[in-house]
């Protein structure tokens, strides 16, 4: 069974409306921008594998909740970063991994199937695997309440989208908009 | 003042809040000293993650520094070229540079010796320090320009400055 990435993305924003959200390049960012192009979204435009590290650095720097929307292909590129999440252990960080078992942004080539929740647990990060929207919502609530970082591996159908133009502004504008939105 | 003391002085003068690092033998004692200071330190598993982490720290209003060896900085090029530079996400790098005078390891030579040119090619300003000049002042000025113009700036520390492996 797989969940719908649009419905789950909406659930992320509903669960913690004030959260700063860092989204992986490609589909994760496109779906987030289509769902709600809010000032507290940071869309990665490159640096595959760096999405969770960006979220970690942000979580260490602000008190607000931080949610990462990573892709399975991206996290596989830098799975070792979970060990750093585990050793830093920020309680305001939730990592959502959209597990579609494919490089969805580049045409759906298959990724290796990995138990991301178990990998997270092995790194000292609370890991949960879900495949339905109601399970996902419950795990988001648990993550928000947890005194430590969480990873939610959410199995989703591969999204078929060319990507919106709604965030097609300059790279440095993304930085300015997001950073300004977070200023105390 | 030892070169390590000068680095810590420079980090403080430059307003650095957070240091992300992956150690080598040259930087090890320095990292221990930073750990004892009021600067937050994060040990990464791969240097490219440090570039991402420092980008996130900047987005959250903090100033970050990367400490690693030149071989590790070579791991960072996709993050530099597709995140730090186009995104306007600054940090300062303090990198122990291998591959030049006295280096015995052929594996350190191609990227280490070429590192100033490699950084120039992707638009990351940098300066190679071989012992001359004021290290603390240089770090302060690197931070001032990096966090003003929103670009990373890398200071390469040659063996003639650090003395190599202790």
Sequence-ordered SSE layout with sheet pairings:
The complex is a heterodimer of chains A (184) and B (166).
Chain A: H1 5-15, E1 20-23, H2 27-35, E2 41-43, H3 51-59, E3 66-71, H4 72-77, H5 81-88, E4 93-99, E5 102-103, E6 109-110, H6 116-122, E7 126-130, H7 133-145, E8 150-155, H8 171-182
Chain B: H1 3-13, E1 18-21, H2 28-35, E2 40-43, H3 47-59, E3 64-69, H4 70-73, H5 77-87, E4 92-96, H6 109-121, E5 125-129, H7 135-149, E6 153-157, H8 159-162
Parallel strand pairs in B: 1-2, 1-3, 3-4, 4-6, 5-6
Helix pairs in contact in B: 1-2, 1-7, 3-5
E-strand count of chain B: 6
Which stretches of chain A are low in confidence, meaning pLDDT under 50 for 5 or more residues running?
none
What would you report as the Rg of chain A, rounded to the nearest angstrom? 15 Å
Number of domains of chain A: 1
Average residue pLDDT of chain B: 96
Q: What's the tally of helices of chain A?
A: 8
Q: Please state the structural category of chain A.
A: alpha/beta
**What quaternary form is this?**
heterodimer
Q: Helix count of chain B, per DSSP?
A: 8
Query: Looking at this structure, what is the CATH superfamily of chain A?
Result: Thiamin diphosphate (ThDP)-binding fold, Pyr/PP domains
Overall tally of domains of chain B: 1
Topology, number of strands of chain A: 8
């Amino acid at each position: 069974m797989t969940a719908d990435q649009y419905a789950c993305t909406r659930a992320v924003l509903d669960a913690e409306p004030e959260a700063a959200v860092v989204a992986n390049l490609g589909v994760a960012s496109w779906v987030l921008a289509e769902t709600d192009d809010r000032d507290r979204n940071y869309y990665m435009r490159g640096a595959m594998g760096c999405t969770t590290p960006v979220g970690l650095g942000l979580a260490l720097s602000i008190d607000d909740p931080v949610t990462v929307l990573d892709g399975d292909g991206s996290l596989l590129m830098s799975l070792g970063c979970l060990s750093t999440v585990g050793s830093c252990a920020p309680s305001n960080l939730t990592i959502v991994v959209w597990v579609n078992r494919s490089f969805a942004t580049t045409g759906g080539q298959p990724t290796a199937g990995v138990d991301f929740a178990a990998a997270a647990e092995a790194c000292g990060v609370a890991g949960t695997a879900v495949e339905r929207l109601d399970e996902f919502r419950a795990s988001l609530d648990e993550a928000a309440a947890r005194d430590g970082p969480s990873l939610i591996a959410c199995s989703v159908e591969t999204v078929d989208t060319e990507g919106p133009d709604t965030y097609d502004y300059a790279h440095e504008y993304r930085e300015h908009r997001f950073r300004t939105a977070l200023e105390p | 003042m030892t070169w390590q003391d000068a680095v810590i002085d420079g980090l403080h003068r430059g307003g650095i809040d957070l240091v992300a690092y992956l150690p080598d033998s040259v930087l090890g004692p320095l990292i221990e000293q930073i750990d004892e200071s009021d600067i937050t330190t994060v040990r990464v598993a791969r240097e490219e993650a440090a570039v991402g982490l420092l980008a996130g720290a900047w987005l959250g209003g903090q100033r970050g520094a990367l400490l690693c060896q030149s071989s590790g900085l070579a791991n960072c090029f996709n993050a530099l070229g597709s995140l730090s530079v186009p995104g306007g996400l600054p940090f300062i790098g303090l990198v122990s540079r291998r591959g030049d005078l006295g280096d015995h390891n052929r594996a350190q030579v191609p990227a280490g010796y070429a590192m100033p040119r490699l950084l120039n090619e992707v638009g990351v300003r940098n300066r190679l320090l071989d012992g001359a000049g004021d290290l603390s002042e240089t770090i302060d000025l690197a931070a001032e320009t990096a966090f003003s113009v929103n670009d990373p700036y890398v200071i390469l520390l040659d063996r003639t400055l650090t003395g190599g492996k202790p």
